[in-house]
Amino acid sequence: MAIRRQAFDAVRGFRDDFGKIGSWSRPEDTDLCLRTAECDGGGTWIYEPNAIVGHQVPAERTTLSYFLRRCYYEGQGKATLASLNGTSESISTERQYVRYVLPHGIVRGLGETARGDASGVARSFAIIAGTSFAIVGFLAHRAVGHVTEKRKACGRRRTCHGKRLIHKCWLRP
After folding, report:
1. Strand-strand pairing, 163-165 and 158-160
2. What DSSP element (H or E) covers 120?
3. Helix (H, G, I), strand (E, B), or coil: what is residue 23?
């Protein structure tokens, strides 16, 4: 992800109390994008499919157990993000992804299995299991409530170009 310095500074960058903290991993990149879009009236986000990024992945992160744990924590992180920015803003892309992209991946994997590629069923299983763990992580985090986190977020000063922003989700009648 690349972002203009002016936009980054306008929202005061990444939150100090959000992201990778201890064993908790929350989607600080998504949070930054949501806050930047709110500040700059949406801005323009560009996907560059020809971009090349080198990323080394340690062997311990290539296991099924790590993948499922990561999916669970991602679900928890999305729940926290939803409590900060509102559910509709925070997970709308994920809902579309679960509704359209993942089912196609499952069908493709099963089709590959039917054509003789045994790894297709494993890919379909990984999609189903990963999605299930993410949903369970999201729901478990929401069920617990995390009222203290929500209250802390309420008092947080959110700014855009020096002006204080008030979240509509925190306004009470």
Report:
1. antiparallel
2. helix 119-144
3. coil
Instruction: Give the confidence band of 7 by pLDDT, cuts at 50, 70, 90.
Output: confident
65-85 pLDDT, tens digit each: 999 998 998 898 888 888 777
Residue type, 27: P
Query: What's the whole-model pTM score?
Result: 0.68
Q: What is the rounded CA–CA span in Å between residue 25 and residue 31?
A: 12
- Cα–Cα separations (whole angstroms), residue 50 to 4, 43, 53: 20, 22, 10
**DSSP H or E stretch at residue 157:** none
Long-range contacts: 90-96, Cβ < 8 Å, 24+?
90/30, 90/34
d(CA 94, CA 120): 23
Q: Is the dihedral of CA 51, 53, 59, 64 positive or negative?
A: negative
